Structures are given as structure tokens and as C-alpha cells.
Fold these 2 entries.
Entry 1:
Amino acid sequence: MSKQEQEKKLHIEVQDLTMAYGSFVLMKDLNFKVYEGDVFIIMGASGCGKSTMMRHLIGLNEPAKGDILYRGESFVKASASGREQMVRRCGVMYQSGALWSSMTLAENVILPLKQFASYSDREAESIARYKLSLVGLSGFEDFYPSEISGGMAKRAGVARALALDPEVLFLDEPSAGLDPLSARRLDEMILELSSNLKMTTVVVTHELESIFLIGNNSIFLDVNTRTLGATGNPKHLRDHCENPMIRNFLRRGELNAIGD
Ligand SMILES: Nc1ncnc2c1ncn2[C@@H]1O[C@H](COP(=O)(O)OP(=O)(O)OP(=O)(O)O)[C@@H](O)[C@H]1O
């Protein structure tokens, strides 16, 4: 770990987490740390439980065992109002972008501002305009989701996730369904936002280009052992991870081809 990383403050800590749907144990004994300012990638093969991990981090799923701490504060042991406050500090963009099709982009961003904060109409409109400008959508405030491209819809989804100035931004498969150029533009925007807004960003993705471009820290969920395969800088894991299956995954299966 570099000196810079050692000086980083702990933001999220996952302790002995087991995730299950009923009696189906998806992942067990997960331990890892996310530091302030990280762009943290949750990665692993299809169906390993990446989205479920994200749902646990934002309080939508209850751990079967273990705990999740935000700045040292237990999510599991928190009171209902304590939890609500912790959740409020998270902004989430779901896989589909999940914009309301009957609302303009500005109205979509205004929605959480009116729902969870007491801004006047004018304040909310001005905040929405600002958030849309952060994601390069100035001038598109009055457009409907059906009138913009997939990449723009994703960016609008990010603007909505940023509405309440979150401390952690969660993105579920942000580049899914985008052409390579739009995906790259979105990745660059994610990097810019995380640095300019000094946020911690947690991204669920299996797009290797994204992983190496934006991620400085990560976990790899191992679908075979149903536990944590590795944690650390994705490039480091690609080049030095002890587990050949993870190195292979991160090199798009090239190791099999050369018989490593
Ligand atoms: N609500 C649910 N109830 C029961 N099982 C579920 C539920 N949601 C997900 N699962 C199962 O849990 C497993 C992990 O799902 P999850 O969506 O978290 O994986 P993922 O790694 O995000 O997958 P992908 O990369 O394909 O999006 C899958 O086998 C899925 O069928």
C-alpha cells in the first residue's frame, strides 16, 4: 500500500458479511475497506452477487450475518432514524438509469430534492440546473428521457443521484448498454466528479476498460468459493494477484490461451 493510501481515511468497512436470499447463501465472510475518495469497483463473474453487495451497502438488503460501518458507525446496529440518515448520505444510480419517463430531466433531479429536503421550487430548480451542468447536460433541462441518447440518460441518472450532495455515489453497471465512446465519456465524467466533488464512488461493473480506467480499489467476488477472491487496486490484481482465476478474468481470459 502506498503512503498516500495509508493516509486515506476509512469510509466504509465491511465486517464478516454473509449475504443470503432465504437459505441460499450467496457470499460469506466478506471483509474489506473502502477509503474516502476511492473509486471502488465491485467486480466478479455474472451472478456472483455484485448488485446484491451494492444493495447491502445502501441498506436495501439486510445482512444474514456481519456488519457494515460508515465512518465507524454500525449500519446494522443503528436505530431506524440513524439508518435513514446514513442512507441519505448515499446517492444511487441504478442499472437502467431509472428516470421517470413522464418527467423532464430537471423534474427528475428535482424529485429527491422535494421528497427529502425542504427546498423552495426556485432553489430546487436552480440546484437541478447545476447538477445537470455537472454531467454536461446544460440546455437539456426540459427534455424528456425519450428525447435523449442512452449515454445522456445515464448522465441524467448520475445528476439525480447527486441531487442531495451524497458522500458516497453508487453506480450499478453505469456503462451497460452504451457504445464504447459513450461508455468512455461516462467513465471520464465519473473520475472528474469523484475528484471535483471529493466523493467516494462505488461502482458495480465487469467492463474491464472501465475497471482499469476509473478504479483505484476493488473487491473481486469469487462465485466458485462464494467468498472474497481478492481486494485491492485492480491493475495490481491483474498483474500480481495470487489467484490465477482472478488474473485471468482481469486479462479477458488471455492466460488460458497462452497456457498460464
Ligand atoms: N431478490 C432475489 N431473490 C432471490 N435471489 C436473488 C434475488 N436477487 C438476486 N438473486 C440471485 O442472487 C444471485 C446474484 O445476483 P446479483 O444480481 O447480485 O449478481 P450480479 O453479480 O450483480 O449479476 P450480473 O453481473 O449478472 O448483473 C443470482 O443467482 C440471482 O439469481
Note: The chain has a mean pLDDT of 91.
Entry 2:
Amino acid sequence: MIELSDISKSYRTGSVSVEAIKHIDLTIAKGEIFGIIGHSGAGKSTLLRTVNLLERPTSGSVKVGGVELTKLSSSQLQKERRRIGMIFQHFNLLAMATVRDNIAFPLRLAKLSRAAIQTRVNELLQLVGLEAHADKYPAQLSGGQKQRVGIARALASNPDVLLCDEATSALDPQTTNAILDLLLDINKKLGITILLITHEMHVIRSICDRVAVIDGGEVVEMGDVLDVFLQPQHPTTKDFVSQVADSFDPRELIASSKGRLMKINYVGEITYEPLLFNAVRSTSVQFAILQGTVSRMKNTPYGQLVIEFIGEDQEIRQVIANLRDKGLEAGELA
Ligand SMILES: Nc1ncnc2c1ncn2[C@@H]1O[C@H](COP(=O)(O)OP(=O)(O)OP(=O)(O)O)[C@@H](O)[C@H]1O
């Protein structure tokens, strides 16, 4: 659905040139929810805005739904942009227009009939749960409600792609979760492809299928959210993963450990099975859980534990082999 090839973008201010993004390749499948995470100034906004050519890349190709956007005339581009909705951190609503009129705005631009606009706006109000607020003005709404208007407006012309520019950054945690649930719901119901940028790992973990980590204008890591989360490689990725992990570093325990410290990861339904107990029950090995998370990433359960095994070396090896046989990943804590 989205194919960015060798995208670079430089900004020139006077005699100084800043390379905001450098040689980025990104392919996003139809129906996917793809997250781009990075610190402030990493190049996230620039990258996102190249997808609808709000920022024209200095070089590279931008294809959406198979159409090369950089080669289009401005009228052709305007038409293609209807297939790409966008929502913003600060909502960008028309302050002097009601919720209904804000949502109707792109439909009026597209010259739909009054009756068609009314029908479509009612559908959208229902989809985002704002039927009761249709005649209010933005100033009368909460942040979460304003973002719902933004989402309804972005979906008005039935786009294939929704771009989300830090869409939950101005919201409190509870409202953030409600908006993320709405995005997930829209993705499931409409099959729309979602590309979002954020600096919060929580957002990635809650709704994304894949993630790219961007640092200094380059993609430094990319993959399925589960893999990146459980086995982060780049220091920037580790930094983001630690946002949602326990702040206590279990490596502090290595010096005082009596036994063998292992890091164990598991994914899927085995998360709920008594695997540790079963692995040690026929041995004299004992274990202590020193740190642990059992949670869900989107819809997939996973566990991540730091375990100290105490006992005979050979028996511990047998226990670890048994756990690996059951599909758990077990590695020495280092
Ligand atoms: N219009 C512009 N003119 C000059 N430099 C710019 C412009 N827009 C962005 N930059 C620079 O490009 C780099 C990337 O900026 P960008 O806004 O894409 O980062 P970001 O990751 O979205 O950051 P934030 O999370 O703070 O919005 C920064 O060094 C920024 O200063």
C-alpha cells in the first residue's frame, strides 16, 4: 500500500543544510498498522509527511497504492490525496465550525450533494461515537473528543491510508487508550492501512504490527513489534523498550547470584501454561523469579522473565533444554 524507496530530505536554512531523513526504504502492506518511533528531531514528522507529499523528498520515490506520487501534476496529486487521510497531534479543527461541519468539510470540497454529505457525516459520527456532540463547537469538546472529530474528518472520503502524526501525544493515558482502541477498531472494520509516528513505546505495543525505529534521520531497526520488543538490538530501541519495562536492571544481581541467571521469553498461548513447574518437578532444581512481565502485545500474550535456577549444573541444563523443547527462548543473562 505504501512504498517509500531511498527517500532523503534536506532542509536549507541560509547556508546551512540539515539532512532530516537519509535514504529510507519502507514497505507497508495493505491493512497493516505500522509505527515509526524516534526521539525529538529524529525525522519522524518529515518522513510521515513525505507519504502524502506535504513534504516533497529531495530524492527518492513515494508510491501509495501503486501510484508514484512524485511524478503527478498538482491536480492529479490533489485527487490521490483523497485516498490518504491524516490526523494531527493538535487536531487542526476549524474552531468556528461545529463537529458536523468539521467532518463535512472535505466532502464539501469534493462537491458531494447535501444529502450525500448528511448521510456520510451521520455514519462517521456513529463510527467515532460522537452522535451526541454533533452540533457542538471544538472549544466545547475534550481532547479525546476533538481527536475523534479529526479521525472522522480524515475518514470522510473513504481513504485507503490513515497517517497519524503523534495523534495521542496531547492526551492523557486513559484517553490515549480509548483513541488507540478506536484506531484499532477502524483498522479491523475498514481494512484501512495505518501509518503512525510516536515517541511512546506504549502506542507501538498497543496497536502496531510492525515498527521502524528512526534515529538521526535513519531507520536503525525494523521488524515485527514482538521481535523488536523482546530482542531489541540498537541502543535507541533498547531505550524505547525500557520506557514500558521494569526500570530495575536485573544484571545488578549477577554478582550476588547463587545460581544460574537466565532470561526467558515466550509468546502465544504457552504463556498461560505451568511450564516452569513442569520443567523442574522431576529434578531437585529450584528457581526464583527475579523479574517478570506477563502481558499482551496487541492480541498476542507474551512473557519475559529473569529466573535464577539453583541446583546441579547438569540438572539445570536438563531443565533449560526442557523449556526450549516447549518453545521458550532461554538465554544466559548478560
Ligand atoms: N521546515 C524545516 N526547516 C528546517 N529544518 C527542519 C524543518 N523541519 C524539520 N527540520 C529539521 O529536520 C530534522 C527532523 O525534524 P522532524 O520534525 O522530522 O523530527 P521529529 O522526529 O518529527 O521531531 P519531533 O518529535 O520533535 O516533532 C530536525 O533536525 C529539524 O530541526
Note: The chain has two domains: 2-243, 250-332.
